[in-house]
Design a protein that fits this description.
- The chain is an all-alpha fold and about 210 residues long.
- It contains eight helices and no strands.
- The chain has a domain of about 100 residues: Serine Threonine Protein Phosphatase 5, Tetratricopeptide repeat.
């Protein structure tokens, strides 16, 4: 009887061992926990927010004239169109472009990593280079150096180097200092024709007396 009871107990213990899972293997087979989805989305949002902070907002104004980004672009375009119609406004165009340049410098100072800054500098340089004026040509060289120094790896700097290398020399620029206007002198009057003396008259010959 004791043998029967012992055999039954042994079978019961064996069945319990067979049905219980291996705790060690269960730990090894458990898949790794994934990062919460919310944490990943929050990181992406933070990255986008940081990138947007590098860009100037559309409703911010720069320079003495308080120009927006769109205003800077439109002013450069309009100045070029007006100059094409009337080359006599060269000096006025340079003065207006200089104010726009001040706005771009203010823009760069506040948002130096804004990718639109070198683009605005490129178009400003092309405007200066287009004007047939000595001061404008100096401004064109200075603006090109400004772009090459502050944004040497930008696409606009590479493009400008190509443009300058392939550009044909412009006509001699007009000096900005106005020369005093001098009325042209009247052409010298032609000397009067010489007064000719009347030709000498031959002496009068009296008629010969008639023969008688």
């Amino acid at each position: 009887m004791k043998r029967v009871i012992g055999f039954v107990a042994a079978c019961a213990v064996a069945s319990c061992i067979a049905t219980c899972p291996d705790v060690g293997s269960a730990r090894q087979d458990a898949p790794a926990k994934k990062a919460p989805v919310q944490t990943s989305e929050a990181a992406q949002y933070a990255a986008r927010l940081a990138a947007m902070r590098l860009l100037a907002p559309a409703d911010e104004y720069f320079g003495q004239l308080k120009m927006s980004i769109l205003g800077i672009k439109n002013t450069i375009r309009d100045l070029g169109l007006r100059y094409d119609v009337n080359h006599d406004i060269a000096r006025q165009t340079v003065a207006s472009a200089a104010l726009t340049e001040g706005a771009i410098r203010d823009w760069e100072h506040k948002y130096p990593r804004d990718r639109e800054v070198p683009r605005a500098m490129y178009f400003l340089q092309r405007l200066y280079a287009h004007i047939l004026d000595a001061q404008a040509q100096l401004k064109a060289k200075a603006t090109a150096a400004w772009l090459f120094t502050d944004y040497p790896k930008s696409a606009q700097a590479r493009e400008l180097k190509k443009v300058i290398a392939s550009a044909t020399p412009l006509p001699a620029p007009v000096a900005t200092s106005a020369a005093p206007l001098v009325a042209p002198s009247a052409p010298a009057a032609a000397p009067p024709p010489p007064i000719l003396a009347p030709p000498p008259q031959s002496p009068a010959v009296s008629p010969a007396p008639a023969a008688t």
